[in-house]
Design goal:
binds threonylcarbamoyladenylate; binds magnesium ion; 355 residues; globular; alpha/beta; Rossmann fold; 12-stranded mixed sheet; single chain; DHBP synthase; 6-stranded mixed sheet
């Protein structure tokens, strides 16, 4: 299959109206188009077409029981596909369009294939202007997982989508780098009006708690115990893990540098804060240094993480080290992604013992 690649300026979408119309036609006809959102790139197909869902699973190499998020142009469109409640509209007023996904009971209008066999469906109304216009012109919900091959980091730039999806889908819309760089916050709405956090993201627990009570699913920060059923099917699948083992270090920069210099690894990479870049480069001259962002700027770190992990994977490191993120605010999202990429390998240097 030949994949058409088109460039669209998210700040001037009207200039690309014809290209986006073509993309919408492809989706209406059952084809697949990767498109930018404010979180990560999505791999879009018609959310009402079971064949499109099958094609998405196959293009990603994803098990078909791992459900897809349907993307809508306006929060009220959720009525057509789900049973909403008051909490949904409170969340929508505050956070939509934006990086929030809400899991609700599904209506029959959403095929079982899109839902991965569940009775619920996840809805999201993205704020990226390209995504928004594409959904509007398609005139139906767009089912879209992240546009990576299953097991790779989510794509935050069109080059990542091209690397994973060229030849597997009909079109890729290149809208530059995604603003946020981590996938949306996902909450499941409960019957009593409360919610359960299934995946942390840019919208934090504290922000959600201003709307209604929030529980946090165990799998957000912990390993899911053997045999426990995941609330979100995605949690049970192996997550992205770099080819080299990723080790998270919990300690100050001095303890981190000391620990790494005492380990006898051949070719190593270190992810660090820009504040420490020079010191790390000077004291560990044989390591490759990747800068996540300023230490006190978690949004900047989130924006760079997946792209750095993809870059690091191109080298054959024997180990990759990174600082253990804090679980405060957006830090929880970074923590959740990094702890999975590290298969929960954390070394606690503060107390000098493994955690
Ligand atoms: O930011 C995002 O959410 C991106 C962009 C493209 O919108 N999409 C995305 O989709 O990250 P995906 O499929 O890569 O991750 C969605 C996660 C999966 O782990 C899936 O299991 C879970 O959401 N999910 C989808 N529908 C669900 C449902 N009905 N109940 C529970 N979890 C669900
Ligand atoms: Mg994904």
């Amino acid at each position: 299959m030949i994949t058409k690649i088109i460039k669209v300026d998210p700040d001037n979408v009207i200039k690309s109206e014809n290209d986006i119309k073509n993309a919408a036609e492809i989706i209406k006809n059952g084809g697949l188009v990767a498109f930018p959102t404010e979180t990560v790139y999505g791999l879009g197909g018609d959310g009402t077409n079971p064949d499109a869902a099958r094609r998405i699973y196959s293009a990603k190499g994803r098990p078909s029981d791992n459900p897809l998020i349907i993307h809508i142009a306006s929060p009220a469109d959720a009525e057509r596909y789900t049973y909403t409640n008051e909490t949904y509209y409170k969340l929508a007023d505050r956070f939509m369009p934006g990086p929030l996904t809400v899991v609700l009971m599904a209506r029959e209008s959403v095929p079982i294939e899109t839902r991965g066999g569940l009775s619920t469906v996840a809805v999201r109304c993205p704020s990226n202007p390209v995504a928004h216009r594409l959904i509007e012109l398609t005139q139906r919900p767009i089912a879209a997982p992240s546009a990576n091959l299953s097991g790779s980091p989510s794509p935050t730039d069109a080059s990542h989508v091209i690397a994973d999806m060229q030849g597997r889908i009909d079109m890729i819309i290149d809208g530059g780098m995604c603003d946020i760089g981590l996938e949306s916050t996902i909450v499941k709405l409960e019957d009593d009006g409360s919610m359960m956090l299934l995946r942390p993201g840019k919208i934090t627990v504290d922000e959600l708690a201003c709307i209604a009570p929030v529980g946090i699913a165990d799998a957000v920060v912990d390993k899911l115990p053997e045999g426990q059923v995941a609330l979100s099917p995605g949690m049970k699948y192996r997550h992205y893990a770099p080819k080299a083992p990723l080790v998270l270090l919990d300690g100050d920069i001095d303890e981190v540098i000391k620990h790494i210099s005492e380990e006898n690894n051949k070719k190593i990479a270190i992810l660090c804060y820009s504040d420490h870049k020079e010191e790390v480069a000077r004291r560990l001259p044989h390591a490759d240094v990747y800068v996540l962002g300023a230490r006190n700027n978690i949004n900047e770190q989130a924006h760079h993480l997946f792209s750095i992990l993809r870059d690091a994977d191109k080298h054959s490191y024997s180990k990759i080290y990174a600082p253990l993120p804090s679980m405060e605010g957006v830090g929880l999202a970074l923590y959740n992604r990094m702890i999975r990429a590290a298969a929960h390998t954390v070394i606690n240097l503060r107390q000098g013992k493994n955690g």
